[in-house]
Automatic annotation (TrEMBL):
SUPFAM superfamilies: Invertebrate chitin-binding proteins
GO cellular component, one term: extracellular region
Keywords for the protein's UniProt record, in alphabetical order: Chitin-binding, Disulfide bond, Glycoprotein, Repeat, Signal
MF terms (GO), sorted A to Z: chitin binding
Coiled coil feature spans: none
UniProt organism field: Danaus plexippus plexippus
Protein name: Chondroitin proteoglycan-2
Annotated SMART domains: ChtBD2
UniProt xrefs under InterPro entries: Chitin-bd_dom (IPR002557), Chitin-bd_dom_sf (IPR036508), Chitin_bind-dev_reg (IPR051940)
Taxonomic classification: Eukaryota, Metazoa, Ecdysozoa, Arthropoda, Hexapoda
Length: 322
C-alpha cells in the first residue's frame, strides 16, 4: 500500500513539471516570435523588391535634417502663452515680440526705429528708443528702415550738422521731423540721446564748435601738472568763460549784467571789466544805481513803519493811564 502511494506521488510531480515547461515555452514564443520563412519563397523578383524597399528606407533616413544642428534647423517661435497676459521676445530680433492677451498669442512688430523692451510692465508700451533697450545680440534681426524725406527712420533722435555744428538734433515721430537746439555750449550726443558737454560727445569737435583752444599748461618737473582746473575769459564775449578739462574746453556764462573776472575766477559786475563793451557796462552801472535807490527806499519804508509802531505804543500807554 505504501509503495502505491509513493508511485502516485512521483507521477504527479512529473506531470506538473511537464505542464510548467510547456507554459514557459509558450510564453517565450509569444515574447520572441520567430517567423519561419521558407527559402523557396525568395525568388529573384522578391530579392529585387526587398532591395528597393531597403534603399527607399535608407534614402528617407538620409533626407531627415539633423534636429540638433543649429544651421539646418530654423529657430522656432513659440506662440504658446504661459500666462494669460504677457509678452516675450522673439529670438534673433530686436523689434519683434509675442503678446498674449487674454490667453491669445499674437506676433507684433515695433514701429521702425524703436526696440522691444522685455523689462517693462505689461501695462507699459513695450516699444522704446534704442538708448533704453540694449539689444546687441539681436541687432541683426531688425526690420528694414522706412525712411522719409527728412527722417532715416519713422522714430528716433538724430544729430543734424557736422562736427563743427554740434548743437542741433532732430526728433522723428511717425516720419515727421521736429528740429531742436541744445542749450548754449552743449552738444547733442548720438550715444546718449542727450545734450552733453562737447568733449563728451564723440560726434563733436569741441574746439571747433566753441571756437576756443585751451592754452598749454606749464608743468613742473618736480610737481608735475598743476592741480585743479583752469578758467579763461572768452576773447569775444566778456560774459562767457571757458573751463578746460583734460585740455578740452567747456563754455559757461555769467548771468544778467555780470562778466567773468580772471583774477578772482568769478562773475562780477560788468562795470569792473574794461574788456566789456560800453553799452553793457553802462547798463550794468544803471542796474547798480537802481539797486542803490531800491535799498534806500526800503530802508526809509522800514524806518517809517518803526516810527508808526512806536506812536501806537505811546497812545496805548496814555489810554491805560487815563
Amino acid at each position: 500500500m505504501r509503495g502505491l502511494i509513493i508511485l502516485v506521488t512521483l507521477c504527479g510531480v512529473v506531470f506538473g513539471r511537464a505542464q510548467i515547461s510547456g507554459e514557459e515555452k509558450n510564453v517565450r514564443e509569444e515574447l520572441n516570435p520567430v517567423e519561419i520563412i521558407d527559402d523557396s519563397q525568395f525568388t529573384k523578383e522578391n530579392e529585387a523588391t526587398t532591395e528597393a524597399l531597403v534603399f527607399e528606407r535608407r534614402a528617407k533616413y538620409r533626407a531627415l535634417p539633423d534636429q540638433y544642428n543649429e544651421e539646418s534647423s530654423p529657430v522656432a517661435v513659440s506662440k504658446t502663452c504661459r500666462e494669460k497676459n504677457e509678452r516675450y521676445s522673439i529670438p534673433g530680433s530686436c523689434d519683434r515680440y509675442i503678446e498674449c492677451l487674454n490667453g491669445t498669442a499674437e506676433e507684433k512688430t515695433c514701429p521702425d526705429g524703436l526696440r522691444y523692451n522685455p523689462n517693462v510692465n505689461f501695462n507699459v508700451y513695450p516699444c522704446q528708443y534704442p538708448i533704453d533697450v540694449p539689444c546687441l545680440e539681436r541687432s541683426a534681426g531688425l526690420q528694414p528702415p522706412q525712411p522719409t524725406e527728412d527722417c532715416p527712420h519713422q522714430f528716433g533722435y538724430f544729430k543734424i550738422g557736422d562736427a563743427k555744428n554740434c548743437s542741433g538734433f532732430r526728433n522723428c515721430v511717425n516720419g515727421v521731423a521736429y528740429d531742436f537746439t541744445c542749450p548754449d555750449g552743449l552738444a547733442f550726443s548720438s550715444e546718449s540721446y542727450r545734450c552733453e558737454w562737447p568733449d563728451e560727445s564723440k560726434d563733436c569737435d569741441a574746439e571747433a564748435f566753441l571756437g576756443f583752444r585751451c592754452p598749454p599748461v606749464p608743468e613742473s618737473r618736480e610737481l608735475g601738472a598743476p592741480a585743479g582746473f583752469r578758467f579763461y575769459r572768452s576773447p569775444s564775449n566778456c560774459q562767457n568763460y571757458f573751463l578746460c578739462i583734460n585740455g578740452k574746453p567747456r563754455r559757461l556764462s555769467c548771468g544778467g549784467y555780470s562778466a567773468f573776472d580772471e583774477s578772482s575766477e568769478s562773475c562780477i559786475s560788468a562795470v569792473d571789466i574794461p574788456e566789456c563793451p560800453a553799452e553793457l557796462r553802462a547798463r550794468a552801472a544803471q542796474i547798480i544805481e537802481d539797486e542803490k535807490l531800491r535799498s534806500t527806499a526800503e530802508a526809509a519804508f522800514a524806518k517809517l513803519r518803526y516810527v508808526q509802531s512806536e506812536d501806537v505804543k505811546e497812545s496805548t500807554t496814555v489810554s491805560y493811564d487815563a
